[in-house]
Design brief:
Shape: globular
Distance between the termini: 49 Å
Number of strands: 15
Bound molecules: iron/sulfur cluster
Strand content: 15-25%
CATH topology of the largest domain: Rossmann fold
Helix content: 25-40%
Number of domains: 3
Number of helices: 11
CATH architecture of the largest domain: 3-Layer(aba) Sandwich
CATH superfamily of the largest domain: Diphthamide synthesis DPH1/DPH2 domain 2
Order of helices and strands: HEHEHEEEEHEHEHEHEEHEHEEHEH
Structural class: alpha/beta
């Protein structure tokens, strides 16, 4: 039987703000609306497009490309006449600059999974402790419920603001844990509310000294992720050792709007050349082993785009791929003991203002934005 991808089905598991969307679109009076979805929600794209077209009479086109985050807005749709992009499933990334020419509406998509049972389960590991809370945009509006459940169980919850690469209190990205760093000194442990290791591993890696527990509202599982860091560090040690054998290095620059670090990449070319390596800038949109086959004579690649391509997809590439900070180790500018995760920071620290940010009743560390 073919699965149903209608709006009723979507609303069963997701709290998605579709009601005011048609009015927001009409206000902007576009010719053609681009719709961009992350995996999982994209299946419902045709039903959402139908609803928008019916309510507004304006044509929609669905982006069929992957959407990895708010760092990855489908601005290329402008080339086919799209003059308004509606981006679903991720919250805005205020640090992205220069997209004023292309209007973007963000539609948050929140999980409906109850958080309280799994948080109470996690509290068994955390009693009497001050615990920093972390989550993704999907569960961001549930942090007040999390705080209440923890306080009830004798745990003292803390929530912090990150920099302007994130908008919600306590929000983690796979490349940014500034919301964790804000409260690290005051916390005995971190508790991440969400699924998978992708987001919490960044904070656990970047702030190694604190235990980080995951409470997964989808599976009701509670686990600690810190054990994975040792295995990742072994992988990075091998990557650095292999990169030291290279004569020629490709410095990869991402073209996606929230993954561009061109100036940084140029500085890395200069660093390589000063240390006797030949280096070239290579710009890429979608990273894949196939795309790098044309550069097979290069002994290593330094990735300045999404740092998780480097750490999570490392085994897919023939040549070692390393982070900019790992390049510093390769050329002798940094020691292995000073290893740091390649955090992709925003352009401004908290406080920062954004009309789409989730508001919590619980106090948030850092000034009120
Ligand atoms: S750069 Fe990578 S980790 Fe960061 S938001 Fe984008 S996809 Fe996620």
């Amino acid at each position: 039987m073919v699965a149903s991808y209608g709006l009723d089905e979507l609303r069963k598991n997701h709290d998605i703000e579709l009601d005011g969307l048609a009015a927001k679109i009409e206000d902007r009076d576009p010719e053609l609306v681009g719709l961009q979805f992350p995996d999982g929600i994209r299946d419902y794209g045709p039903a959402i497009a139908d609803a928008i077209e019916e309510q507004t009479g304006i044509d929609c086109v669905i982006s069929g490309d992957p959407s990895f985050g708010a760092c990855d807005l489908a601005l290329q749709l402008e080339h086919i006449g799209v003059d308004l992009l509606v981006h679903f499933g991720h919250s805005p990334m205020p640090s992205i600059d220069g997209i004023d020419a292309f209007d973007v509406i963000f539609v948050p998509t929140y999980s409906k999974a109850p958080v309280e049972p799994v948080v109470r389960k996690a509290a068994q590991h955390l009693e009497g402790k001050t615990v920093g809370l972390l989550t993704t945009a999907q569960h961001a509006q549930r942090l007040d419920d999390v705080c209440e459940a923890l306080e009830d169980e004798g745990v003292d919850p803390l929530v912090g603001y990150g920099d302007n690469r994130v908008i919600n209190p306590g929000q983690l990205l796979g490349c940014n844990f500034t919301a964790a760093r804000t409260i690290a000194e005051q916390s005995d442990a971190f508790l991440y509310i969400g699924s998978g290791d992708f987001h919490p591993i960044a904070a656990a890696w970047g702030l190694k000294e604190l235990p980080l527990y995951v409470a997964d509202p989808m599976t009701s599982e509670v686990r600690q992720v810190n054990d994975r860091i040792e295995e990742l560090m072994k992988q990075r040690h091998a990557a650095i050792a292999n990169a030291k054998e290279a004569d020629e290095i490709g410095i990869l620059v991402g073209t996606r709007v929230g993954q561009q670090r061109v100036k940084y990449a140029k500085g890395l070319v200069t660093l390589c050349e000063r240390k006797g390596f030949e280096a070239h800038l290579i710009a890429m949109d979608y990273f894949s082993p196939e795309a790098l086959k044309s550069f097979r004579h290069m002994g290593a690649f330094v990735n300045t785009a999404c740092p998780r391509i480097t750490t999570d997809d490392y085994a897919r590439y023939d040549a070692p791929m390393i982070t900019p900070q790992e390049l510093e180790i390769v050329v002798g500018k940094r020691s292995w003991e000073d290893y740091i995760f390649d955090e992709f920071k925003g352009t401004k620290p908290a406080p920062h203002e954004h009309e789409d940010a989730v508001e919590l009743e619980h106090d948030v560390v850092g000034e009120d934005p």
